[in-house]
Every structure is written in C-alpha cells, then in structure tokens.
Amino acid sequence: MVENFHKPTQYSTDKFDTFEGGQDPAQIIRAAHDTAHALIDHARDTDDPAVLDRIVAYTDKHGIDAIAELWSRSSPGSLPGALWRIYLLRAVIQQDALGTSLLFQRGIDTLSTIDAAVTGAVNPTGPAEIKDLADQILRGVFRGDFGVALDRAASFSRILASGAGSIADDQESLNPERASELTTRADRYSRTADEFSTCVRLFRAGTLD
User: Fold this and answer.
1) 8 Å CB contact between 54 and 95
2) Choice among 58-72, 130-144, 145-159, 181-195 with the minimum mean pLDDT
3) In degrees, to the nearest 5, what angle opens at C-alpha 108 toward C-alphas 145 and 118?
4) Domain membership flag for residue 173
5) C-alpha to C-alpha distance for 73 and 32, rounded to whole angstroms
6) pTM for this model (two decimals)
7) Are 116 and 77 a contacting pair, CB within 8 Å?
8) What is the DSSP letter of 174?
9) Helices marked H in the chain — which ranges?
C-alpha cells in the first residue's frame, strides 16, 4: 500500500471501461497477474474482517486509478481483468448510486431472466441497496465460491444493460443525446456481462489466470 494517499479520482459512468493504463505493457501484464493472485491469496488466508473491509473499500481511499495502472490493460478473460471490472463497477456505483440504482431497478422490471435472483438483489433496489449489493459481490470474490461471485457480477451487468437500454428507448424522441449516451452505456454493460461470463467458464475449467 502506498503511504502518501491522494483524493480518489472521480470516474464518471460515461468513461466506463475506457481507462488506459501505464506505458510498459509487458511489465504491467506480469505485475497485474502477480498482484491479482497475491490479493486473492491474502484475502482468503486471513480471518480478520478488517482486512477484507480494507480490500473492498481500497478504491474509496486511493482512487480507481491506483489499481488501473496495474489491471486496466489486462485481458478480459483473466483474473486481473475480472478484478478490474468488478472494482470499476463498484466505483461507478459509489459515485452515482442514485443513477445506477434507477438503471438497475428498470432492468429488474424489464428483464425476463433469472439475473435478479442470481445477484441476490432486493426489490426495490435503491441507492443504499445497490451499494450494498456491489460490496457483497466484491466480498464474494475474496470469500466463498469465486465462480458464483463472477456469475453475480455478470447478472448485475446484464441488469444494468437492460435498464440503460430501456430508458434509452424512452428518451429517444424526447432527448436524443441522452438516449445515445444510455445506449452506449448499455452496450458497455452488456459487453462487461459477457466478459464476466467468459471468466466464469475459464475459472470452472481451471484456466483463469
């Protein structure tokens, strides 16, 4: 952990999944895998709940850019790639819990799948509930079945994609610019859901590194 902390970077939803990492890809990729495995191992080797609290809330204090330099360029089908996307989802929710909860609630209302049950979301899902759900999913990465945590993250992202797409349809004639923004966001969430699903398959095949 660094000793000189800075104010966390505000990472807006319209920049989701567009962060660029450092300038030496080879070193970053190796460091990404090493730190991801070390973090998972450290969290699973301790019974101290305070350690898990600090790991979950790391970006609240250090900013999302503190891990982006290591993980944001990793392959989507990798352990650091999965961790990056979960932390990034949580950062977006922390910074706009109200807006994200509105997308999520709309997604629950319009998506005729089992995704809401997979996430374990309460209904209705307000700002407090969605922040708690994001924390639960991240905690699940470090406790319990890692594959289940990734399944929940995939369903979480699919619900957000459905909600963003539905609201975009509502806004198409009233506010085309807003509709376009939401459509782009829906596409990003949908792609992220697919990436989490890929990680689940790799994990259960024993090939997620």
Assistant:
1) no
2) 58-72
3) 15
4) yes
5) 9
6) 0.85
7) no
8) T
9) 25-45, 49-56, 58-62, 65-71, 79-95, 97-110, 115-119, 127-142, 146-171, 176-204
Task: Mark residue 2 as left, alpha or beta (left: phi above 0; alpha: psi -120 to 50; beta: remaining).
Answer: beta
Q: How many domains does one find in the chain? A: 1
- Domain span at residue 127? 21-204
Does residue 89 form part of some domain? yes
* CA angle, 85 then 87 then 92, to 5°: 90
Q: What is the C-alpha separation between 108 and 53, in angstroms, rounded?
A: 28
**Over the stretch 124-142, which tens digit does the pLDDT of each residue have?**
999 999 999 999 999 999 9
pLDDT in tens, 20-64: 444 566 777 888 899 999 999 999 998 898 999 999 998 888 888
What is the rounded CA–CA span in Å between residue 91 and residue 98? 13
Which of the 8 DSSP states describes residue 14?
Answer: G
